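ok so i was messing around last nite and threw this chain in just to see what happens. nothing serious, just curious
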Amino acid sequence: MKMAFALAQRGSTRAALREVDAAVRVLTGVAGAKARAQRGAVFHQIGRLDEAFADYQVAVRVLRRAGDRLGVQRTIVNRALLQAERHEFEAAQRDLVEADGIARELGRELAVGIITGNIGYVAGLRGDVPAALAAFEEAERIIGGQGGQVAAVLQDRAALLLSVGLMTEARQVALRAVEAFRRHGRTLKVPEMQLLLAQVALSERDWTTAAGHARTALQGFKGQGRARWVALARAVVLQATLGAGEPDRVAARDVDATVAALAGRPLAAVQARLDAARLAESRGRDDVASGYLAEAARVRRRGPATLRARGWYAEALRRRRHDPVGAMRAARQGLRVLDEHHAALAASDLRAYSAAHRAELVDVGLRIALAEGRPARVFEWAERGRASRLLVRQVRPPDDPRLAALLPELRVVTAELDRARAEGRYTGRLVSRQVELERRIRDRSRLLRAEVSLPGPVAVRDLAAALGDRVLVEYVQVDDRLLAVSLVDGRLRLHDLASGAEVAELVERVAFALRLGSARASVLLRDVAARLDALLLPFPGDRPLVVVPTGVLHSLPWSVLPSCAGRPVAVSPSAALWHQAATRPPSSGEVVVAGGPGLPGAREEAQAVAALYGRTALVDGEATVEAVLSALETAATAHLATHGVLASDNPLFSALRLHDGQLNVHDVQRLKRVPDTVLLAACDVGRSVVVSGDELLGLSATFIERGTARVIASVVPIPDAETKPLMTAVHRHLVAGVAPARALALAQQEVGPSGFVCIGAG
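result:
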């Protein structure tokens, strides 16, 4: 029995099975039950689940009768994991709760930690992300404190991070798990982690890396005799091959065998059937494709949210040709499942990055709508793919004392880090501390749940009534074509505009020209802006404009376009969000103005702006993070002139630098109330990180998410820009009662084009 355990951990599962079979033949009573439990574990590892479950059942009955509490605890943990794989979650949870109670009674603290990690694994499979993350954190603490091996917890955490689209973190945690498994000689698990790394690469559309990792994992599983894992690896190789546009390299018989072997893995089986259908379609076998899709769609009414959503996606694909109305209905149902699941996540990054499956469902509806050529349908599906998390109304993430304590600690470290850099001192220790605190804040925020309401889509007639004489233009990209839907005087029109790649190149040139700021760059800017104007706004008019961008257009400063000069332009993440903000009654409050260090002229700018309102600016030692946050909670308008940082790799730590440290996204999320209008005279923080489905992360997006009606900020990185002339001009018009978008347009006419836009209601 001991030999079998060692062999199994080293990946020699065939030899392990021979040894444990020999033990089962000769042992009886409690010893025989333990041998059956161990054989069940080997069966479990190689994917023979029915045989594993039968052995577990026999072992538990004998061990209970004999009063062997330790044996029962160990066996029902393994049985729970098997039941969780089959999505029998209630049974799995009962076993884990019982096992936890036994381990605590027996004083087995390390076992408590391992069971806690397994509870997290089951919660993750069910789709309860906060519960899973909380369990993993507690498991790591307990197991680490007992000197145990945390590799299995790291493996489960990596899989969960992958499931919600946090690819960079999933890769980092997976690599840590590989190192830990190898260090402890548990080579059985190494191919599993290589497969997870392949799945990360798939999500990043890195087909070559994905195929390489998957093939390495495939060879490892073959050597271990793990048929079900072999099928999983082959399924990933299939995805990578199709993604790379090489369907001819796949044999149909291999696909059928892979799908059949994945019967006990519902989510993997659904994905394999989707890929098999795609392959059959590429070969003109529509009947075969329809059969695969019908099988995949069977899961749409049961199981975790992600599984049901994939089932609805399969149903939408199955219906899209012969029943487009039914396909749209199926896609809407899939979106509803995902939105209800994601809405309760309090952490903005979890909700944003977990939107990948939404994008596929939206794509089905959008393509059908475009084929019909009906602008109203195209507009509906364009809206369904827009910044869905920002529409979810929530008061704020719940108060959490540990999170509240970590944020001031981070500010102290970042302030000391700034001083050390300015003085040329060694910063290694401080950087390490900053990274650790950011990780703890990020992880803690993800444990919180939100109480939210899900709004319905805005009706075109209601949107048209709110627009009045404004023109709304919503952009959509399908493959490499950029299209737009315009709404003017209640009438929707569809426009086929340009190549997406061409527009992206021109937008990058605009940012380059604004950064240079030279006379030669001005000529380049005028030329590029004119070309973009002709591509993006080919319909005449000078009415106030509401723009809903997509992709790179989120980084376009619209005022540089000739037809937008002097024209009020409001840039909104979605039409529904614009309507929500534009029709909400304004809140009352004071004007708060603050100036921080690190930005030339910020102190003078803050004092000049405050003087226009007859107020005193928070500057120098008064401009602390707590003072500014306190002022924001009672203000109707806020002007923050300070150095800003867009953390593109970790957007929830995008920040404004104040006297005693940084005010970051997590601080804004914890405000009880936010101003109606916020002006960020801080270069680059108006720009958001765009993730799947046009979801946005960053400071501007967070103010909008929390309820700010409009944010005036720069979407172009211009280091240490002098913003005083533009900002004081904007505020002169605001004091005179001019709406913010028009005030910005008038100020830019007076001062010159800039990277600033008005995000939100305008």
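not much to say yet. Residues 688 and 701 are 7 Å apart (CA to CA).
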